Each structure stands twice: as C-alpha cells, then as structure tokens.
User: Fold this.
Amino acid sequence: MNKRFRRTTVAVLAAVVLPVSMSACSDDGDSSSNEGSDSKKSQSEKSGDSSGSEKGEDAQAMDGPFGPGCATVPESGKGSFDGMAKDPVATAASNNPELSTLTGAVKKAGLVDTLNNAKDITVFAPTNAAFEKIPKKDLDAVMSDKKKLTDLLTYHVVGERLTPEDLEKGSYETMQKDKLSTAGSGKEYTVNDMSKVVCGNVPTANATVYLVDSVLMPEK
Assistant:
C-alpha cells in the first residue's frame, strides 16, 4: 500500500512540475529572442535614421550656395544671395562686391545685355582676387583690347545651367566656342584643373554662378 501511494505521489508531482518547468524555459527563450530582436531593430532604426539624416543634410546643403567664399557675400540687399536671385546675371554680379573687377570688364566688352538676355546659362565668375593674380601689365593689355576681352569673358560662360553634380566630371562648350573641363565632388570643384570654385551654385534670374579663384584662359 505504501509503495502504491509513493508511485501515485511521484506521478502527480511529475505531472505538475514538468509542464511548469518547460513553460518557464519556453518563456525565457521567447524573452531572450524578443529582446535580441528588439535590440537589432532598435540598432537598425538608429542606423537608418542616421544615414537618412546625413543624406538629407547633404542634399539640403547642395540645394543652395556652398564654399568658403560664400562667407564674403552680403547677408542682405541686392548683393546677397536672395538679391542676386532676382536679377539677371550681369546685373546680379554688379551688386556683388567680390565681382567688381569682372563687372567692369563685362561693361568694357559690351556684354551686359548679352549676358542679361541669355537663358539658362552658367557663369564661372572670377573674383577680384582672381584678377589680381594676373600681372597688371598683362591685365591692362587685355582690358584695352575689346576682342581679346570678349573672348576671355565669354570663355567663362556655358550655355546651360550646370548643377554641382554636372561638375563632377565634365567637358562643356563655352560661349566663346572653346571647351572647359570640370572635376570634383562634394563641395570641392575645379575648372580646367587649376581654378577652384570658392562659392558655387549661386542662382540668378537667368543663370547659375560659380565664383572661381583664377581667371580661365581659352586656348583658341
């Protein structure tokens, strides 16, 4: 009788304990799995958010003017980015203090109306500092020769609007009928492998302007 009682007791305990134990193990496994899944999901979301944020910031930055030379552009008035966007390119350039030498050259060559009336062009605009790199004697000689001056200035004009992406690696015919080349990426670009863009992607009413630190010289 005692033996039968013991057997019955053991059977009852096994029936109670085993399911509870297995359920606990199963819960631990699910909890661990869920925690791991949640952790991976959280890390993935963070990684995705960071990547998306960085791409968004880069795209936003490239939508407007960029480059160290942009810091010298007035914050307000006709010479500011907002002011230049409202005027055709020759007029816009005349209101920018960094382009006063270029503006004077454009007037001497009689190109104000030509540039202002052109549609969807790109102008690589040499800054005052760019013109200062040319020996005064040579610059004066060009300034006094209307044909040479016209050739020089129209070499800085491309007959289409170029985006920063277009500048990454390209070759474009100019208004002067010679070609210039561009290269670079991000926010650093060069023209003809020697003139650096110091303030790029500046919009005007009829053109996109890239301020460059050296005057471009046509081969023809």
